[in-house]
Amino acid sequence: MPFWWSAIFWGSIGFSALYVLYYMIGIGPGATKEYDADLTGFYQEQAERLGDLKPDAQTMSSLMADPRMMQAAAGMFAANCATCHQKDGGGGTGPNLTDDTWINVKKAEDIYAVISNGVVAKGMPSWSKNFGQAQRTLLASYVAHLRGSKPAAPKAPQGD
C-alpha cells in the first residue's frame, strides 16, 4: 500500500479522535451550543437591521406591502411556525391562518400579542424570549398577510 494512503488513513483516525474529544466529550462547546450561538447572533443582527418596528396597524401595513420584508418573514415563519401551521399557513396541529375565522384575534394587531404572549391553553408558545419586538412585528405582519391566501390543504375554520 502506498505511504500516502496510510498517511490519510491514520490522519483521519487522528482527526476523528480529536473531533470526538472536542465535540462529543465536552472539551469544546459542542455542536448544539455552537448552533444556538450562531442562531442567536443571526437573530440579533436581523433585529438590528429591522430597527425599531412598533406593532401598530400602520407599521404592519407598510411591512405587508414590502415584498423583501415578506420574504424575510416567510423564512422566519417556515423555520419556526410551519411545524404547527404548515408552510403555507393552512393549519396542521395549529389553526388555519388563511381563513377569516381566527382564534384569539379580532384585528391584525392582536396577532402580535398572540405571538408575544402565546396561548398556553391551545399549545401556542410565547415567542417573546426568542425574538425581539421588531421580529415579532414582522412575523405578525406576515401572518396577517397570509389571510385570504389559498393553502394546498387548508384545515377547517376555527374560532370567530
Envelope shape: elongated
DSSP strand tally: 0
Listing every helix as H and every strand as E from the N terminus to the C terminus, the arrangement reads HHHHHHH
Radius of gyration: 22 Å
How many helices? 7
Helical percent range? 55-70%
> What do the pLDDT scores average to?
86
Which regions have little confidence, pLDDT < 50, spanning 5+ residues?
none
Tell me what you see in this structure.
There is one protein chain. This protein has 160 residues and is an all-alpha fold. It contains 7 helices and no strands. Helix 4 (67-80) crosses helix 7. The protein is elongated, with a radius of gyration of 22 Å. The chain starts with a helix and ends in a 14-residue tail after the last helix.
